[in-house]
Amino acid sequence: MMINTNKTKELIICFSKKVNVTNTPPLSINGNNIDRVTKFKLLGVFSSSDLSWDYHVMYLLRKIAKRMYLVRAGVPTCDVVCVYASIIRSVLEYVCPVWHPGLTKKLSKDIERVQQRCLKLLFPALSYVESLSKTGLESLDTRRDMITQSMFREIKTQNTPFIIC
Q1: How far apart are CA 70 and CA 142, in angstroms?
Q2: 65-107 pLDDT, tens per residue?
Q3: Are strands 35-37 and 9-11 parallel, antiparallel or unpaired?
Q4: SS3 158
Q5: CB–CB of 107/57 below 8 Å?
Q6: Nearest to 71 by CA among 82, 63, 60
Q7: Which residues contact 67 (CB under 8 A, 6 or more apart)?
Q8: Using an 8 Å Cβ cutoff, are 89 and 63 in contact?
Q9: Residue 54 needs a FRET pair 20 to 30 A away by CA distance; which of 24, 45, 102, 109 works?
């Protein structure tokens, strides 16, 4: 396999106070220096050198903001809930087992506010809990927990390709 040095990035993760990352010599392959980055996007997920998910969540929220107009379409509620689940919630849950366990409470609340805002548009007179009950939806935090736990239960079984015997 040939490595494309133009597409290869170096991300240094180091929490030691004694190590100055800026003094670390650049990585090079076949005489070509590899770009050093503090964050990168791989398969739609942003990772950063401090292992926080702040940038990834900001990216998700910006992406969702562009789709919020779909909730205000003036179509029947059941159709809007279906559109929300397929076009908005799916983005907020994409590969969540990777990043959900590392979320801070603030980031989790920021994500939850998207669903609260959508439900408030549909049911202005109802509370968030009442809106969830009326639509049959769960909180996003609960769903991410279930998805993450389900994936790890699946990994623990012997019938999964993730386990190497």
Answers
A1: 24
A2: 888 877 776 678 778 888 888 989 999 999 999 999 999 999 9
A3: parallel
A4: coil
A5: yes
A6: 82
A7: 87, 88, 91
A8: no
A9: 24
Banded pLDDT at 143 (limits 50, 70, 90):
very high
SS3 label, residue 32: strand
- String of DSSP letters for 51-119: ---HHHHHHHHHHHHTTGGGGGS---HHHHHHHIIIIIIHHHHTTHHHHGGG--HHHHHHHHHHHHHHH
pTM greater than the 0.90 cutoff: no
Residue with tokens 């133009």: 6
Distance separating alpha carbons of residues 157 and 6, to the nearest angstrom? 39
CB 23 within 8 A of CB 12: no
Sign for the CA dihedral angle at 92, 93, 94, 98 comes to: positive
Name 45's bridge partners. Answer: 42
**71, 83 in Cβ contact below 8 A?**
yes
What share of residues in the chain are helix, strand, coil (percent, to 5)? 55, 10, 35
Please report, as a single letter, which amino acid is at residue 116.
Q
Collapsed DSSP state (helix, strand, coil) of residue 50: coil
